[in-house]
Amino acid sequence: MSGAARAESVEELRELVRQGPGAPRLLPVAGGSKPALSTPPPGTEVLALDLSALRGIVEYDPAELTFTALAGTPVREVAAALAEHGQHLPFDPPFAGAGATLGGVVATGASGAGAFRHGGVRDFVIGVRFVDGTGRLVAGGGKVVKNAAGFDLPKLMVGSIGRLGAIVQLSFKVFPRPRATTTLRFALGSLEAALAAATRLARGPLDLDALELERGGRLTARLGGDMEALDPRAARLAAEVGEADGPPERVDGEDEAGLWRDAAELSWVPPEHAVVRVPLTAHGVVALDTALAAAGASARYGLGANVAWVAWPQGIEIDRLDALLRESRLTGMALTGAPVAGRRPLLGVVPGGAFGARVRRALDPFDRFLEG
Predict the structure, then answer these.
(1) 52-71: per-residue pLDDT in tens?
(2) Count of helix runs (H) and strand runs (E) in the chain
(3) Does residue 208 contact residue 117 with C-beta atoms inside 8 Å?
(4) Which of 138-147, 152-161, 223-232, 331-340 shows the lowest per-residue confidence on average (mean pLDDT)?
């Protein structure tokens, strides 16, 4: 049966990991904002390893645009500290309002709308400390943007979903927040038309902060920068998109900020639906959306149609989505929804292969952490 243990310090965490043969396998958890990953699967001997006590900003240098914090620190706590100095994490970590932590963001590799322009979480994490499967405290990277500390352990931990070790501390670089932002929403009549416009914009010179589209043909684009430049840039954006079902809707001020907060929280997902993130490329969007619609599921497409956020009804077996993704040669990561007995959180074509197995054996030779 599954259970739970709370580590109040790094030393307590190391002792829990060092338990001998026969001890239950470990699943690091903290904020619980992604229950499909942080809840032990039913019918398994797994100990949920609560790391939420390992929280707090250790060091923050606004002049150097870097900070270091314990992995259980909530994203919204970090966002508030950065905002006091006009800075932010530009990759818009999802589920901040639901309690997402820095460690969870890195472990899932989850990036939001701002990653379209600025890059994802792997482009901003510069240092990591974690406890591996032997109880060792391992460090990689550093606290400055430029470092040469050997093997790139920080990026290795991105998307590891707690299966290589328990992250205890992270260092990030940050960016200044744009002085002003505006958003234009276009009704283009079909997903195909929205996809064609998104492809043009992604290849163009407009430097969009975010670019999202959805079934039905709505295209949403965000601009950031100096206030005096936003009007001409918005006009150029509208001209670039071209013919649409009426003029674009422009959203500014608090309404605009709320629109992107809702996007980061995936507020559009209906109740009793699981969220599955699926990386893809633009040419696979229409086929995937057609298959999802036939299955009774919905989706929105972010990062210029390079990621699908799938809302999968809990009443439909998740195996159906797994098969659908396999047929399309795609990988999905379940983020919310109840875990299913015998089902891993990764769906479709699971990456890793021989190299992934070698890394796992090196960092967790005794299989202390739950396999992903």
Answers:
(1) 999 999 999 999 999 999 99
(2) 12, 19
(3) yes
(4) 138-147
Angle formed at CA 337 by CA 333 and CA 339, multiple of 5 degrees = 80
Nearest to 368 by CA among 3, 43, 24: 24
The fold of the 273-338 domain, in CATH, is Alpha-Beta Plaits (3.30.70)
Neighbouring CB atoms inside 10 A of 200's CB total 13
Integer Cα distance of 82 and 29 in angstroms = 24
pLDDT band at 233 (very low <50, low <70, confident <90, very high): very high
> According to the CATH classification, is domain 180-265 in 3.30.70.920?
yes
Q: Which CATH number fits domain 1-177+351-372: 3.40.50.720, 3.40.50.10330, 3.30.465.10, 3.40.718.10?
A: 3.30.465.10
Q: Which residue has the higher pLDDT, 311 or 44?
A: 311
Tokens, residue 121: 């979480």
Q: What is the pLDDT of residues 179-212, one digit of tens each?
A: 999 999 999 999 999 999 999 999 989 999 999 9
- Residue with the larger pLDDT of the pair 143 and 326: 326
Residues 6+ apart with CB under 8 A from 159: 107, 108, 109, 122, 333
